[in-house]
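Retro notes, structure queue

What went well: the backlog is down to a handful. What didn't: a couple of records were mislabeled last round, so from now on we paste the full input next to the output in the thread. Example, using Metallo-beta-lactamase domain-containing protein from Pseudoalteromonas luteoviolacea:
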Amino acid sequence: MCFYFLKKVLSIQAVKRCLISGIAVCQSHFVFADDVAFDVIKQAVAAYGVQALSSLKQLKVEEELYRYMQGQSGHAESGAHGFVMHKYQQQLDIDFALRAKAFKRSDQNVIGNYGYHSLVTVDRRFREGEGVSVDHCMQTYQHSERIDWDSVALNMEQAIDILTIKELSDNSKLVSSAGTVFLQGRAHSVLNWEKSKVTKTAYIDKASGLLSRLLTNNKGQIAHYDFLAHQQNAQGLKWASQTIVSHEQRVTRHITNRYLSLKTSEGALFQTPEYYQPRAQDRFLDFAEPSVNEIVRGVFLVGQGWGFTLFVDVGTSYISMGSWQMPDDTFTWKHRLAKLHQFTGNKKPVSQFIVTHHHDDHLMGVSEVIEHGAQIRLLAEHQQAVETSLGLPLAPEQFGLLSHGLKFANDQVQVFDVPSSHADHNVVVYLPEQEILFAEDMFGSSLKTGFHSPNSWPSRDVYYRAEVLNKHLKKARVSVQYYVSSHHGRVFSNAEFMRFLRLSCPDNDSLLARLYANESQ
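Corresponding output:
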């Protein structure tokens, strides 16, 4: 009835006029919103001196910050996790005219369980469309397709407010206004835009034009940047000298000091060091599918990706060690055993399983071991960690205690307790007849040939642990022909392990001198 009435009362021309008017109103609304955003950006550009930056085309940023994160504890009685803090000193040189960047960082472990490899460096450069990673530990460089204009500084730029204002200025047509909010009692204009599939929201103080907060949403990963203590240099640039970065309502980084300057660069910082050698592109081993490797007769390494389990045939059963896995893994310990049964054609059970240390990522498979009916062999110091992982106490018949140097299974298996920076007690397993050593978190390589640099994460402290392990093996006077790790499908020969040990970084002062060697140029 209502539709019939409207159809009769309103002429076609009138309907057309209404539709046109409505569209005009909508268009004027969007134009107005863009105009608001444009005015806010214009005010911010003036407040920060971005116009001076745009004309000179060069910028140097130096900053100090602390990074906070959860790590693994070194002491079993402390539980599986502990607090880790790193101190960064980092520097970014940008030449907008050359379209070149040089990013340098020294990373010093302050709180956490590490050996003497407490400092590493990062050096990433981009020029003429090509990225380069420089390793000052091994004095090599490597071209990298993963280093581009946006990624070279490992997200450092996102925490620099003046660069966000420059980004807004360069992309003003893509920015929309989202009203006003109050932060710390001050009115702020809210601006929304998207760049490289990352959604961003800026909160700009209406009175000062300064950026107080930035939110980024990258595929559901939300980061908060709060900018504090603004200062200004002689060239008229203004920036926040402190920044708080948080994720999931937890502070992850605190930039405590930042300084900006405009400089004249001849491009030396963007070149590879003159005396460094090119490093061949890394070729990684692919264990995407579950695999079984019979190292020697009766000794099997079974795993996938980043997690492997060793099974040793001791006659009527297997002894197993290494159950590393993550919560979303599907090829778990029981599936590895099933894969072994399929490979050998027999159904021998596992009679004993050896726990190496207290970290929860190495205990997730223990519940499947208990369900299978195998006895848990462990140090007394690890019993609480195992029971915490299981969620219930171990019955006396479910476990047996280990001790340093103990031999069992008719002397087919021997264990050593090797304390290191990673864990205050870490069991390594030695098979005397086969001269095989199994360890977790002490050595390894994911490469087909060669090794990861000591100047990288997560490998940096592994070299210290390997040195500690080697000293213990020498003291025990055992001969090893095969070195097996729960994190790597690649098995080291004795010669490879010795080459692994010879890799090392210089002292911290020498490493820093290499990092900043080109600064005088």
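Agreed that this is the format going forward. Reviewer comment attached to the example: Residues 12-48 form the longest helix (37 residues).
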